[in-house]
């Protein structure tokens, strides 16, 4: 991967990518790569996904995608569950 600038690190997509890949590394899930995965996808889809994820290789893209599935923080479910509700104790006066 190329050297990142300060703005790159503040971008949410880059921040998430770096944190997911970092956590996978700390958990030892980036070593002992013996499983093989294959499939056919549209080349434009693959290129756009690599570009959006900020990765250069298909292997890193697959690792990031699988990591995003495994390292779920539960935010979407919590956000949906809280929809339309706010704690009555919250002061909304601005």
TrEMBL record:
Domain of life of the source: Bacteria
Record's protein name: Uncharacterized protein
């Amino acid at each position: 991967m190329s050297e990142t600038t300060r703005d790159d690190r503040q971008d949410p997509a880059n921040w998430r990518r770096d944190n997911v890949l970092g956590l996978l590394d700390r958990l030892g899930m980036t070593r002992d790569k013996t499983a093989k995965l294959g499939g056919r996808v549209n080349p434009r889809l693959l290129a756009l996904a690599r570009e959006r994820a900020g990765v250069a290789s298909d292997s890193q893209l697959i690792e990031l995608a699988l990591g995003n599935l495994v390292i779920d923080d539960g935010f979407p479910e919590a956000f949906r569950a809280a929809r339309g509700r706010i704690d009555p104790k919250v002061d909304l006066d601005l």
